[in-house]
Amino acid sequence: MNERSWNPERITEIVSAHAHLEGPLLPILHAVQAEFGFIPRDAIPVIAKGLNVTRAEVYGVVSFYHDFREQPAGRRVVKICRAEACQSMGGRTLAERVLKHFGTDWGGTSSDGAVTIGPVYCLGLCSVAPAALIDGEPHARLDMPTLVKAVEAKP
Amino acid sequence: MTRVFVPRDAAALALGAEGVANALRSEAAKRDLPLEIVRTGSRGLHWLEPLIEVDTPKGRIGYGPVAVPEIAAVLDAGMLKGQHHAKCVGVVDEHLWLKRQTRITFARCGIVDPLSLKDYEAHGGLKGLSRAHTLGAAATIDAITKSGLRGRGGAGFPTGVKWKGASDAAADRKYVVCNADEGDSGTFADRMIMEGDPFLLIEGMAIAAFAIGATKGYVYSRSEYPHANATFTAALTIARNAGLLGKTFDIELRVGAGSYVCGEETALLESLEGKRGQVRAKPPLPVHEGLFGKPTIINNVLSLATAPWIMTNGAEAYAAIGHGKSRGTMPIQLAGNVKHSGLFEAPFGMTLGEIVDKIGGGTASGRPVRAVQCGGPLGAYFPRALFDTPYDYEAFAAADGLIGHGGIVVFDDTVDMAAQARFALEFCGIESCGKCTPCRIGSVRGVEVIDRIVKGEARERNLALIEDLCRTLKLGSLCALGGFTPYPVMSALRHFPEDFMGAKRAAAE
Ligand SMILES: Cc1cc2nc3c(=O)[nH]c(=O)nc-3n(C[C@H](O)[C@H](O)[C@H](O)COP(=O)(O)O)c2cc1C
Ligand code: FES
């Protein structure tokens, strides 16, 4: 992912664009992360001010949800399903091997910054397990070579 | 011009359907074969995906699973005329797996172009809504109640009773909230509807809104479903442009952020309001004080998507199908290590064994079926000894299990049930909203106790301890995340005690 560097003006714009919604905080956070790849710590006071809530409230929401990242991710984001249907098809072993291959742990990024691997609990691909999302694209009936190839393929 | 149907359902895409559609287009062009590719949802025969269908005078003939390198050969074999090839499965409607089903909620899924409102209407769409308008709000609620429809999200609460509650509540504003958070492992039916028949959900929500007097609807979906969200967003725009939405009632799609507990209805409301997804204490019930303090019905995608059929065909027709107090059909989702995986909609009442062995065809690995988890991560593990349990809410409850959202995850004999019990507790800890102690702390302690049991440390004492801990979780948790985690844990212990005997079965995975 190629994030643009963030600036307070752009955050304010995003906040205003969502101001008409009821309960706009989650859509705002999704929009910020979609644009910058993560939720910059210094964006939090800007969002809080725009919504007239405390920073603690905004931070509390950011930290509650597994999706929101406080650091930029690697160039590719892989979410490997760890839930039961994928386990039944060898998902545990697959995930361990993939993490080892890229030299990282759950939620971590490979040292060359190429890939971030996160856990996910079900992708609704349980009938074609084991499954993963690579940059938002679903992949199923995965084994080690297929997954590594898909991750290393040009996006 | 021959019409060819290629699914765009996420399961089909995950198996390469996009490449198949592209290859089909280019290979056909090379051969000067005129074809029109229609992208559909999935029929639910997931082991055959990507499943291509060709419109022929005999009906829609299927080819699957088809991979990109096979396209040329399949075309050359005369696919556009429905001619034979090793991958041909015949007329799809005649396929035994579909013939055995009773498709009510999934009547159109995989057949129509999900984003053609014309197609939707041509296949009986919007009749339910107009019937509701003719009958009036009170009679609509009456019909839903009489149909016996129960919430498909997990709890099985009568849908009509919920609607009546919200309808009776006086307020300046009411909401219809659709729970599309579908977090249970082994389930994908909501996703299939959003991708394969999104107007059905829109119609269902419009009926609910009309019945209770709501002006605004929210669909709370999940970030793990980018394709479903894209299709549903497109469908909303089409419905708005057609005047189906935006006049008296409008719907907005909201997307969660990777939290399982946000599927719990009150946590979901908190999340919609832009807060941490923490469970609310009940009462007040959402039908009295729900979203932003206003009367709100929260229903699962499948509950709402079944309302149009009930309104079109009558409450009696729906109530006539089923078993015991479980009326109608359940879209059963066969997942995990199962040969014939996918969506199987059937009246309640088949036995679990029939579903797993006969419909599912046993495991994908070819090894014996050892355990099946029904109803998601909070559901019990069933051993073969319980395969005579009829698939209905009460019978499953009597067997200390649950149907939940209809997921069935099959495991072969390599499964380590101690690892499964441990995972259930670990998952509870990861996803706990943190509001109540049994769930937040008990789950973490539970993982430690399982580890000690497996290591053989003070077995008897630790077995008593896990049982006690499960009782505390069950009785002391604020919601069913902590409250139901004992189901998978205790069922694993009860039915598969040999797996907790230490290193014996370890290294199985
Ligand atoms: C931890 C937890 C997660 C849940 N997840 C979902 C879900 O993803 N989808 C859903 O429809 N119901 C889910 N439920 C059930 C909802 O709380 C609620 O009962 C349901 O949405 C009501 O709709 P229904 O009556 O149509 O089933 C969950 C419950 C709990 C305790
Ligand atoms: S359990 Fe892995 S996709 Fe559902």
What would you note in describing this structure?
The complex is a heterodimer of chains A (155) and B (509). Chain A has two domains: 57 residues, no CATH class; 77 residues, Glutaredoxin, CATH 3.40.30. In chain A, helix 1 runs parallel beside helix 3. Helices cover 43% and strands 12% of the residues of chain A. Chain A starts with 7 loop residues before the first helix and ends with a helix. Chain A contains seven helices and four strands. Chain A has 155 residues and is an alpha+beta fold. Chain A is elongated, with a radius of gyration of 17 Å. In chain A, a hairpin with a 2-residue loop joins strand 3 and strand 4. A four-stranded mixed β-sheet of chain A has the order 2-1-3-4, with helices on one face. The mean pLDDT of chain B is 96. Chain B is built from 21 helices and 16 strands. Chain B has a five-stranded mixed β-sheet with strand order 2-1-3-4-5, covered by helices on one side. Chain B is an alpha/beta fold. In chain B, strand 10 and strand 11 form a beta hairpin. In chain B, helix 7 packs antiparallel against helix 8. Chain B is globular and about 75 Å long. Chain B has four domains: 97 residues, Glutaredoxin; 203 residues, NADH-ubiquinone oxidoreductase 51kDa subunit (Rossmann fold); 91 residues, Ubiquitin-like (UB roll) (Roll); 92 residues, NADH-ubiquinone oxidoreductase 51kDa subunit, iron-sulphur binding domain (de novo design (two linked rop proteins), Up-down Bundle), CATH 1.20.1440.230. The interface between A and B is large, with 46 and 64 residues.
Low-confidence stretches of chain B: none
Assembly state:
heterodimer
How many beta-strand elements of chain B? 16
* CA-atom Rg of chain B in angstroms: 23 Å
**Distance N terminus to C terminus of chain A?**
10 Å
Spatial strand arrangement across the major sheet of chain B? 2-1-3-4-5
* Number of helices in the DSSP assignment of chain B: 21
* Molecular shape of chain A: elongated
- Please tell me what the overall shape of chain B is: globular
Mean pLDDT of chain A: 94
What structural class do you assign from the helix and strand content of chain A? alpha+beta
Distance between the termini of chain B: 51 Å
Which architecture name of the largest domain in chain A does CATH use? Answer: 3-Layer(aba) Sandwich
**Uncertain stretches of 5 or more adjacent residues of chain A:** none
Helical fraction of chain B: 40-55%
Helix-strand pattern of chain A, N to C? HHHHEHHEEEH
For this structure, the CATH topology of the largest domain in chain A is Glutaredoxin
